[in-house]
Design a protein that fits this description.
The protein is mainly beta. The protein contains ten helices and 50 strands. The chain has a 22-stranded antiparallel β-barrel. Strands 3-2-5-6-9 form a five-stranded mixed β-sheet, with no helix packed on it. It has a five-stranded mixed β-sheet with strand order 10-15-16-13-14. The protein starts with a helix and ends with a strand. The relative contact order is 0.11.
């Protein structure tokens, strides 16, 4: 492995400084406890008092001012104990959070001698935290257990400023590839850094979270929005930092099962979902090895991908002769009425239609032999709702609730923790995830058997070494391997995946010869497909109808009824990271670190057209596509230093970050000139200054401000698309490997005000500017020497955007058996393009591409989110007939109300100003109901999780000329098939209920 000399030198320098200065860090996975110990009677500080976290080796002693601090504390619940000779000891139950200081002050009562008795109290998390200088939301394991959420994205969506794009509104190809589209404060999808146990877990090809983490594995999930400290990179909008659980000193086990089958007995909507989930965990000490513990959790789930309610107008094969001979049949009268109105003409006797030799059947209607003219005669139960013009077709056989597609997921998370000595700790987190799904899209509604299947695999292995050299010093060294493999293929009717040369040939896919000698393929030494004829690149990949496969089996896949491309890719990253923190002074905590990442990426793609011979990605509008193969190894590195200054009247987080990247790809020296020669990847450097300030105005009010520069390498898909740079290929479209990092400048200021012991109000205003975003358009030119006329698409740093807004929130901490948090965001998000490939898809050129900002397709001016709940613990709640039916009962509601997304209206088929019309408001309420029972140390209970509690029928898609989800544009051909009118996906999915049981001890 080759390290850039600059970063290697910087790492050595930083380590030397740290050793000389006696420094420490918590590296994004630990927190800090600090406070002052005083005499309860005199108020004098008590030097030499002992402070310990029980059941750990972590502790400290107070200085001459009575001040203490404990660093390197993993997140979680602890009992903090203060003791001193001549004073009664005191215990406090506390919650420690990542990157934050839990401040606990003690007042010890003097006594003649310590008899071992203690006073135990529970510390409340302060509503006002002056050290938090940006928008930050922390969700603990206890909170996640009681939320109506199913995954990390559901948890994120509870935060204001976070937009999760729904099914049907995502960027083309994202749904079927299993990519979540998340926008934060008006940023593009992919501007979020996801970390698990301090290491990145991103999809480097398409961006976004590269894996999933089952909720049973999460100890703490922190979302930092807007601005973040210098230790965090590769993000422009937010950082999501997940710390997984580790084993404790005693054993703990949990098991939970959820299903839609119970409510499916009375609900047709839940009956077709077929949802099942098993999730559980176990952890505790490892026998015979002192101070070593383990924790493992797992989840397995499967169910229908989507469920919708279709209308009742379905195809019925009853012949016309069966109804025309029955004058009492309602349709007989309707056809006669159509004849009377002149809609059906040139028919003398409807009873003779079936045997008239001048007509023959085509589908559901009659066609005249001599002229080919269509005659309006329908089969039984045809669609007469639209003046009799909509023709029912044989595949229109869905009525009522119907499940479409499927998904299944298997997830494992484990962690081994070993406290080798009181000052040395080793942790080994391990993660595995397997996902398989056939995603529904409207194009495949009536032919799901031919839709592509996504098989996704992720693995992560990490080792974390922590060495505490003194009470003021520890350092961490982390190493991680993250692997993600994705295949996207059609599965045959027998369930087997169809791959080049059939599944048995998959491991040797680049030595395939089809049995027809006129159409073979030779990938050659570069593993690029060979162009064998004027028909383009031909490869025998799953072209919609196989005849006889290598194993002798026959595939019955009809032409035009299978997915249009085969894709396999994998990515692997090796990450090394070192962090150091120095509590240099009571008021200064200095943190520094270096990190290095190297990637391995292979991508193999073959596209076809609907005829089944040529391969074509449907996103390409200018002709047939071509196969591609990449094998690249980019690298990234970074170094940072920051100082957290915690003074009495203000807190300052000041830091600077240096990022390095080298794509290692090849590209033209000048993206506008294909004759400029090829160059390998160039080294790119970025410097990011960041500052955050917090000022306690009073003991109940604080002011904060932050400012920062944030950089992010473009998605590697945008850097590497079609690395062969073949201008002779049909519709050439290229990424540019020399692109610079995308840039964001962010500002924020706000005030927190605690107006009672339990209520807090927050207001914050923010703005951000984006420049150098990846964007695409088409270039045409002429080279008189060699190329002649040429035309190609290119992705470069030419897009830009901006957003601004104001956040308001009210929080009521749990008391009197209820809690509440409501957040509102008003914002405006604009850009010249919503996605890097948008300009290419829309056929834009350098002259016609957007030169000004328009509202983003996901702009959401009004966003209201909230949580509200009641909880009664053991012995609480009203009494009825001598019992307390609501004890150990929880009821929580999550609310999400937002503006509808904008769309581009049209008149007469001509588009107007982009995104100047808006869909209706969207309302959603989720809920969880839980009742527990205790049997000694065992807690068991029943759970019901409800999505879309009030069954709102939210409009998600509309017709551009009417703004309606059901009324097409004026002039829309009413002779279209009836399936064009039955579009339940224009609305949100209905109420969904999962019933579950849980047991733990």
């Amino acid at each position: 492995m080759r390290y850039p000399k600059f970063f290697l030198g910087l790492a050595i320098t930083l380590m030397a400084i740290a050793m000389l200065s006696v420094s420490v860090a918590f590296g994004g996975i630990t927190g800090k406890v600090a406070g002052v110990v005083r005499d309860a009677e005199t108020g004098d500080p008590l030097p030499g008092a002992n402070i310990m976290l029980e059941k750990t080796s972590l502790g400290s002693a107070t200085d001459v001012d009575g001040y203490y601090f404990i660093i390197n504390v993993p997140p979680g619940r602890y009992t903090l104990r203060a003791s001193m000779m001549g004073y009664k000891s005191q215990k406090v139950k506390i919650q420690v959070n990542v990157d934050l200081t839990t401040k606990i002050n003690f007042e010890l009562v003097p006594t003649v001698m310590d008899l071992g008795t203690s006073v135990v109290v529970t510390a409340e998390r302060p509503l006002i935290e002056p050290e938090v200088t940006s928008k930050r939301a922390t969700v603990t394991a206890d909170m996640i257990e009681n939320m109506p959420v199913r995954n990390v994205q559901d948890i994120m969506s509870l935060q204001s400023g976070v937009i999760m794009m729904e099914q049907g509104n995502k960027i083309a190809g994202f749904e079927t590839r299993g990519i979540d589209q998340v926008h934060v404060r008006g940023g593009r999808s992919g501007e979020i850094a996801y970390m698990v146990d301090g290491m990145y877990v991103e999809d480097a090809i398409y961006a976004g979270m590269g894996t999933s983490v089952n909720r049973e594995a999460i100890q703490e999930l922190t979302t930092i929005i807007g601005a973040f400290d210098a230790e965090y990179g590769e993000a422009q909008s937010a950082v999501v930092n997940i710390v997984t659980k580790e084993g404790a000193s005693d054993y703990h086990m949990s098991l939970e099962y959820n299903t839609s089958e119970i409510t499916g007995l009375v609900s047709a909507a839940d009956n077709v979902r077929n949802a099942h989930q098993v999730i559980g965990s176990i952890g505790g000490p490892i026998p015979f090895i002192k101070n070593m513990s383990f924790f493992v959790s797992g989840e397995q789930s499967y169910g229908t991908y989507a469920s919708y309610k279709f209308d009742n107008h379905v195809y019925d094969p009853t012949p016309i002769k069966d109804i025309i001979n029955n004058p009492d049949d309602p349709l007989y009268q309707k056809i006669a009425d159509q004849i009377d109105k002149g809609i059906i003409t040139e028919v003398d006797n409807i009873k003779q239609l079936r045997n008239n030799n001048d007509y023959y059947y085509v589908g559901d209607v009659l066609r005249e032999w001599s002229t080919g003219a269509w005659r309006k005669a329908w089969r039984y139960r045809s669609d007469w709702d639209n003046d009799g013009f909509n023709e029912l077709i044989a595949w229109d056989n869905f009525s009522g609730w119907h499940g479409l597609g499927w998904r299944q997921n298997w997830d494992f998370s484990g962690k081994i923790s070993w406290r080798v000595t009181p000052n040395i700790k080793i942790m080994i987190p391990l993660r595995m995830n397997r996902r398989s799904q056939k995603a529904w899209s409207s194009a495949w509604t009536y032919a799901m058997e031919g839709a592509n299947v996504l098989d996704d695999r992720t693995d992560q292995q990490t080792i974390i070494f922590t060495h505490q050299l003194s009470p003021k010093l520890f350092y961490e060294i982390r190493a991680s391997r993250f692997f993600k493999g994705r295949s996207y293929t059609v599965h045959g009717i027998d369930g087997h995946r169809l791959t080049p040369g059939h599944e048995s040939e998959f491991s040797d896919a680049y030595r395939i010869f089809y049995n027809d000698p006129t159409i073979n393929v030779d990938f050659g030494p570069q593993e690029y497909p060979t162009r064998i004829s004027s028909n383009g690149y031909y490869v025998p990949m799953r072209f919609v109808r196989y005849d006889t496969m290598a194993d002798g089996r026959v595939r019955q896949i009809y032409r035009g009824a299978a997915g249009n491309y085969w894709n396999f890719n994998f990515q692997q990253s090796i990450q090394l990271k070192t962090d150091l923190t120095w509590q240099a002074h009571r008021y200064h905590q200095i943190k520094m670190g270096v990190e290095y990442k190297t990637f391995g990426w292979k991508d193999k793609l073959l596209n076809k057209d609907v005829g089944g011979i040529h391969f074509l990605e449907y996103q390409y509008p200018w002709g047939r596509g071509y196969p591609s193969y990449y094998h690249l190894k980019p690298e990234e590195a970074a170094a940072y230093i920051q100082d957290k200054m915690d003074f009495k009247n203000f807190i300052v987080n000041l830091g600077i970050r240096l990022d390095y990247a080298n794509s290692k790809g090849r590209a033209w020296a000048d993206w506008q000139d294909p004759t400029s020669g090829l160059e390998q990847g160039k080294r790119k450097y970025q410097i990011s200054p960041r500052i955050g300030v917090g000022h306690p105005i009073t003991d109940r009010a604080t002011f904060h401000f932050n400012y920062g520069h944030f950089f992010q390498v473009p998605d590697y898909r945008d850097l590497y698309t079609n690395q062969n740079l073949d201008l002779n290929a049909p519709s050439p479209f290229f990424g540019w490997a020399h692109m610079d990092a995308q840039r964001t400048i962010s500002y924020e200021m706000g005030v927190d005000y605690q107006f009672s012991d339990f209520w807090k109000f927050t207001v914050a205003a923010w703005a951000k500017e984006n420049n150098g975003n990846a964007g695409s358009f088409r270039i045409t030119g002429f080279d008189p020497d060699s190329l002649g006329g040429y035309s190609y698409g290119i992705i470069t740093n030419n897009d830009f955007g901006s957003s601004k807004g104001i956040d308001l929130s009210v929080e009521k901490r749990p008391s009197d058996n209820y809690f509440l948090e409501v957040q509102y965001t008003y914002s405006v998000a604009k850009a010249n393009q919503y996605y890097s490939w948008a300009g290419y898809w829309e056929g834009q050129t350098a002259e016609t591409r957007a030169k000004k900002e328009y509202l983003y397709r996901y702009d959401t001016p009004h966003l209201l989110t909230g949580m509200f709940g009641f909880q009664f613990t053991q012995g609480e709640g009203p009494t009825l007939f001598g019992i307390k039916p609501l004890e150990n009962f929880l009821m929580q509601f999550n609310m999400r109300v937002r503006s509808g997304y904008p769309y581009t209206p049209s008149v007469g088929g001509q588009a107007l100003e982009p995104n100047t019309a808006r869909r209706p408001m969207v309302y959603n309420f989720d809920a969880v109901f839980r009742r527990d029972f205790y049997f000694g140390k065992i807690r068991a209970g029943f759970i019901a999780r409800v999505s879309n509690l009030f069954n709102f029928k939210n409009v998600l898609q509309v017709y551009s000329e009417t703004g309606s989800p059901s009324e097409p544009n004026p002039g829309y051909s009413k002779t279209n098939y009836s399936t064009n009118w039955d579009t339940p996906w224009h609305w949100s999915q209905g109420r969904r209920i999962d019933f579950g049981m849980r047991m733990e001890f």
